[in-house]
Amino acid sequence: MVLRLLFVLLIAFNIAVGAWLLLGQNDTHASFATDPGVPKLHLLSELPPPASTIAQAASIASAASTTAATASVPAPATTTTTRAPAAASTDANTLSYACMALGPFATQEDLRIARNALGAQVQRIRARQEQTMQMRGWWVHLPPSATHAAALAQARALGARNIQDYFVVSSGDNPNTVSLGLFKDPANARKRRDEILAAGFPAQVTERTENVPEYWLDLIPTDSKHFDWRSRIHDPAIGSHSTGCF
């Protein structure tokens, strides 16, 4: 009986000690994961960063802040100075250029002579021909007849009155007309007309014009300011005027 009681007590004691070891010592063992005097182990993620790393991070942050501040400040305006080319000389030797026309020349031969006379004074030159209406004088005549025979009869009647210097126009712009003369002076033309009228014939005075060719030189002088074409072309009928360049 006593042995049985001791056995039960021993079992109860073992259970109590086991419970104490399992439950009563947890906090103590939790506080000391290592033996005394041995440094406690830490994970790498739990270690504080080295001082050099902190200084480097602070330097990078400072540089970034400075860059941002600089970017936020407007850059000063840059003024570009373009040096103008040296002004062209304006002294008496400065060349000037202008396009001009000389003419009109009466014939192509006159044009050729003038072109050769200008020579090296021009840097570009061309010849052109135009048609112009020119007054050729005053024509004294009788009105045109209906037929050529009627015109011949008028001519014989003039001869019978001792009127000379006439002829019958048989073709052209005024056929069957009796011509009594072409005059450059209008006073002479009127005098001739009055003589024929006094003889009893219906004389008329008509201004004569016709299309005639005239010739021009278009040119660009080598130096317009000092270009003296009059010293080479002496025809007083030739003139000059400005014209479009070519």
Automatic annotation (TrEMBL):
Gene Ontology molecular functions: peptidoglycan binding
Residue ranges annotated for the SPOR domain, each copy included: 136-205
Protein name, as recorded: SPOR domain-containing protein
Species of origin: Dyella monticola
The organism's taxonomic lineage, starting at the top: Bacteria, Pseudomonadati, Pseudomonadota, Gammaproteobacteria, Lysobacterales
